[in-house]
């Protein structure tokens, strides 16, 4: 379930009598621009009559194409002529004309005779029909490309040309449609202009991420996208040389494909997650192969097929020497065998570690010690494989900003069919980022990875909150021994101060502010430690991880054998973060305009008129920026300037009321419904009295992966 909007803890419900008189400024009326009339000229001398040929030349639009466009146009025409086999048909007509029409005394046909023969047999008309040149509104279409009308996608990716390095090797992956998506068998065809649910395919391969154009959900979705994946080396000194067949055969990274469904309200659902083995193309003729990929569901439906994708793989430049299919299959079989053996040995070691852990104290059996977890495909993986140091580049500057980014990603528990408690599902990082929401474990794994990337000693903690609810959060250990808890769902930080249970009852003990009750284990990408202290209560827990009498460690070598990068072929690679595609200013304006309309309609239903105060709305911006700054840095700033501006803006004898609220989604109607559930906000929106003026301000703060924090403030001023 997505988090609802939350009031700011210092929520400025400002209610003051202000004694400053401010003059009203009238909005200037905008006069319509004068119409430009075409002057009428009389007595103009008559020009000589143009010939018909000259008239045709005059009417013909002059078009000048740059050389690259002209060559591209020629190439397209040549491809179309080759597709229609025009050259073969011309040769047949030429031979037939020579046999039937060439007189014995004639040695050759003229060009005019050949053109007449082609026109008589309809060849020229067929070619012109197939080419379909459109000249109307060409400039307009090029300057403002229109989106398909059957679905709404404000982040649609336009097709762009890619500069190909001729010294590099590329894999061109084409998705040529889908079929058998039986859940959408009865889905009606979307009408023009109708908003409908869409499918989006996301790909990750060797630090490269791609996203398809959204297509309407259907039994046979119309996927037609191509992705150019660079197959590069990562070893020192080989990065500039083109990879050959043998080198590419040793690259075991799969292509991770994630299918996302977006409904008409903008809510996303994870449909499928698939790891494509692409190296079969190395043993195919001409370096081209076609695959049929069956996508399986996620979670409880991981054994159920959701649909089929038709995929074409092609190497560019073409391989000089292809491998035999037997060599490729042998390599893949050896990798699978090696991976299975490593996983078997780790499982044997984990069982032995667990037996030793239970021998310390039988009550350990009830503690939350998670060694394995199921991913979205129902595969059991060591929990340490879900964490890896992740660098955000220039997208995030500080660890606290990273915590804020993870916080604004949506929270949703894994769906479960029927009762029986919580569904187990730890998503891979790509699935979590593409869906833009996940469970507490997904948030904690991502935050821990980012903090490790910033050089902190970070661990994921698995335990419980109040009422024994299982939960995961992040812990960092300072060089001075300070233990800090990071709540990934809220961005809050808590300093842990251990309570000494041996102190007398009258002794003053630190009161914990964090919501955590028990802790069973901590882990990161290199370490796994089980809590073996007499009590698993967080309050009295000692976080000296080097003390094996309090924390039982797993062998780091055993963890590295299955969780180190490249250790096994079943380990999903970590994708990089992508910059936001949301325009913060445009999105803020859109939501604000929608909220104004919703407020006006709501007040109209109550028999109230609505007058908006634009200047007051603008003055609310600093407060919203201050709230976001405080969420990111835990430092409050700028409140004095905001209060001073409000005192100057509100006339003497008037009352000002304001209500800020925070969301992590951009649905204005949903946000408005949430605001009306607050009595204080409803009092502002439905304000009655003399000289009532309303204001609303929206500020969208963007983060990587198109995540955003949306701050809204409603305000009103009225005569006291």
TrEMBL record:
<dbReference type="Pfam" id="PF24656">
    <property type="entry name" value="CEPT76_peptidase"/>
</dbReference>
<feature type="domain" description="CEP76/DRC7 peptidase-like">
    <location>
        <begin position="424"/>
        <end position="554"/>
    </location>
</feature>
<dbReference type="InterPro" id="IPR056290">
    <property type="entry name" value="CEPT76/DRC7_peptidase-like_dom"/>
</dbReference>
<dbReference type="InterPro" id="IPR056288">
    <property type="entry name" value="CEP76_C"/>
</dbReference>
<protein>
    <recommendedName>
        <fullName>Centrosomal protein of 76 kDa</fullName>
    </recommendedName>
</protein>
<dbReference type="InterPro" id="IPR038765">
    <property type="entry name" value="Papain-like_cys_pep_sf"/>
</dbReference>
<dbReference type="GO" id="GO:0005814">
    <property type="term" value="C:centriole"/>
</dbReference>
<feature type="domain" description="CEP76 N-terminal">
    <location>
        <begin position="72"/>
        <end position="131"/>
    </location>
</feature>
<comment type="similarity">
    <text>Belongs to the CEP76 family.</text>
</comment>
<dbReference type="GO" id="GO:0046599">
    <property type="term" value="P:regulation of centriole replication"/>
</dbReference>
<dbReference type="Pfam" id="PF24652">
    <property type="entry name" value="CEP76_C"/>
</dbReference>
<comment type="function">
    <text>Centrosomal protein involved in regulation of centriole duplication. Required to limit centriole duplication to once per cell cycle by preventing centriole reduplication.</text>
</comment>
<comment type="subunit">
    <text>Interacts with CCP110 and CEP97.</text>
</comment>
<dbReference type="InterPro" id="IPR056289">
    <property type="entry name" value="CEP76_N"/>
</dbReference>
<dbReference type="InterPro" id="IPR052299">
    <property type="entry name" value="CEP76"/>
</dbReference>
<feature type="domain" description="CEP76 C2">
    <location>
        <begin position="163"/>
        <end position="320"/>
    </location>
</feature>
<dbReference type="Pfam" id="PF24654">
    <property type="entry name" value="CEP76_N"/>
</dbReference>
<feature type="domain" description="Centrosomal protein of 76 kDa C-terminal">
    <location>
        <begin position="581"/>
        <end position="718"/>
    </location>
</feature>
<dbReference type="InterPro" id="IPR028926">
    <property type="entry name" value="CEP76-C2"/>
</dbReference>
<keyword id="KW-0206">Cytoskeleton</keyword>
<dbReference type="Pfam" id="PF15627">
    <property type="entry name" value="CEP76-C2"/>
</dbReference>
<keyword id="KW-0963">Cytoplasm</keyword>
<feature type="region of interest" description="Disordered">
    <location>
        <begin position="33"/>
        <end position="69"/>
    </location>
</feature>
